[in-house]
Write a structure and sequence with these properties.
The chain has 199 residues and is an all-alpha fold. It contains nine helices and no strands.
Length: 199
């Protein structure tokens, strides 16, 4: 019987454990394997795409600085996303103490140029961000972790520190609210009264 190939998450955990011993190739592989997940998570959690690269970099700096304490009890991905969550919280604290100024006059054009090719444009990103921002924090976090970052429900529950069923419930309610918001917006564009959702 052929054993299944290890998942990216198992491989990233293996790399993290190897990187603990100072293997530079393992460090590079660990960062490369999880960078996209971390960037996507901090972008949605912070609701500030402009600071996503800085937050991702801060996350990896923190992680590499404390890698010697990583024992592999949870996956490296879960461990790293917990660090990313703290980095976002710390950035909120820092931002509240000192407001940031935008370095460019044409911020829309700069945001469009910074986007990855093949992804939805700036207007789509703003619309998605507005829809996600309208969700309660706990539902938004569960939705982003499981639906956008792709974390399994069990890992999301471990990261958020709540039961798996609670995560599933939050995601279901977030999904229903997003669908209803999209329907409301569609009917508003057509100037037709939206149907009342079934209860």
């Amino acid at each position: 019987m052929i054993s299944p190939a290890p998942s990216t998450h198992d491989t990233a955990t293996t790399w993290a454990l190897a990187a603990r011993g100072g293997d530079p190739e393992a460090v590079e592989s660990f960062v490369r394997a999880l960078h996209r997940d971390v960037r996507r998570f901090v972008t949605h959690l912070s609701a500030d795409p402009q600071s996503a690269d800085d937050l991702a970099q801060d996350t990896f700096l923190r992680a590499l600085g404390s890698l010697h304490r990583f024992e592999g009890r949870s996956s490296a991905r879960t461990w790293l996303l917990a660090i990313a969550r703290r980095a976002v919280i710390d950035s909120y604290r820092h931002a509240s103490a000192r407001p940031r100024l935008l370095a460019t006059d044409d911020w829309e054009a700069a945001a469009e140029r910074a986007g990855e090719p093949g992804l939805p444009g700036f207007d789509d990103g703003v619309a998605l961000t507005e829809l996600l921002d309208a969700l309660p924090d706990d539902r938004r976090e569960a939705f982003v972790l499981t639906q956008l970052v792709g974390l399994p429900y069990a890992e999301a529950a471990e990261l958020i520190d709540c039961p798996v069923g609670t995560v599933r419930s939050r995601v279901a309610r977030a999904r229903a609210a997003l669908i209803q918001s999209l329907r409301d917006a569609e009917y508003a564009d057509r100037a037709i009264p939206a149907p009342t959702p079934c209860r």
